[in-house]
Write a structure and sequence with these properties.
Elements lengths: L13 E10 L2 E11 L4 E6 L5 H8 L7 E6 L2 E2 L5 H11 E4 L11 H11 L4 H14 L15 H13 L5 E5 L7 H18 L2 E5 L3 H4 L4 E6 L2 E7 L2
Helix pairs in contact: 3-4, 3-5, 4-5, 5-6
The structure holds adenosine-5'-triphosphate and magnesium ion.
Magnesium ion binds next to helix 1.
GO molecular function, one term: ATP binding
Pfam family, one: ABC_tran
Protein name: ABC transporter ATP-binding protein
Length: 234
């Protein structure tokens, strides 16, 4: 708590209230509200174009909403100066984007090692830990390949390893199993859920796959840029 408020264990870790966000003339979010508690795994579902990725980007402090608030651990993310916001993103958040997330010039191993090096680890230590994380997500023998040489599924698993390697408090994952068959999806979800449960990491998981959403504690559904509860899934 940086604002001097007493910590409230019942308060959500991350809360968005009445978010609106337009991309040009498209109103991607129209009053979306959502809460994520410490250690909670929340699935966000909804039709294509319903605003899921836009919501994730606002919650993760990557995009500022036009109106509404995003509160993380007692601080208004939407009002935080850019420098503090990017620092907070680096220390507390891990993000798996829906598209094009790995750095094409770096090997799979170095993509995963990079956040650790940015946080001050030596290259050798970072690579050792990155290798363990790639193994955990079933990317073995591909450490030296560049993203263009990985399959879609291997790239997604590498991106997940990269999002988790620094031990973030919240992981945002936008369709992390979108390029995987059902067996590989199951392996990735099992690894993600075990890791999150072990470390008490909260996960905001966007998926259109009901089997993937079933790993979550709770599911909310976006329709036309607003959230309606869809009941408890686990
Ligand atoms: N950068 C952008 N420029 C213009 N329009 C955008 C942009 N990003 C999103 N949109 C529009 O905003 C709406 C919501 O997009 P968003 O990507 O949030 O949907 P989504 O629910 O993630 O969809 P999908 O399931 O297909 O990934 C869509 O109508 C989309 O076309
Ligand atoms: Mg999307």
């Amino acid at each position: 708590m940086s604002n001097g408020d007493s910590p409230d264990s019942t308060a959500p870790l991350l809360a968005a209230r009445d978010l609106t966000k337009a991309h040009g003339r498209t109103e991607a979010l129209r009053g979306a509200s959502v809460e994520l508690r410490t250690g909670e795994i929340l699935a966000v579902t909804g039709a294509s174009g319903s605003g899921k990725s836009t919501l994730l980007h606002c919650l993760a402090g990557i995009v500022r909403p036009d109106a509404g608030s995003v509160t993380y651990a007692g601080q208004r993310l939407d009002q935080l100066p850019e420098k503090r916001l990017s620092e907070l993103r680096r220390t507390d958040f891990g993000v798996v984007f829906q598209f094009g997330q790995l750095i094409p010039e770096l090997t799979a191993l170095d993509n995963v090692a990079l956040p650790l090096m940015l946080a001050g680890s030596s290259r050798k230590d970072a690579q050792t830990r990155a290798g363990e994380w790639l193994e955990r997500f079933g990317v073995r023998g591909q450490e030296a390949l560049r993203p263009g040489e990985l399959s879609g599924g291997q790239a997604q698993r590498t991106a997940l390893a990269r999002a988790l390697v620094t031990g973030p408090k919240v992981v945002f994952a936008d369709e992390p199993t979108g390029a995987l068959d059902s067996l590989a999806s199951e392996q990735v979800m099992t690894a993600l859920v075990h890791t999150a449960r072990d470390a008490g990491t909260a996960v905001l998981l966007i998926t259109h796959d009901a089997q993937v959403a079933a790993y979550a504690d709770r599911e909310v559904r976006l329709t036309d840029g607003a959230v309606a509860p869809a009941g408890v899934t686990a």
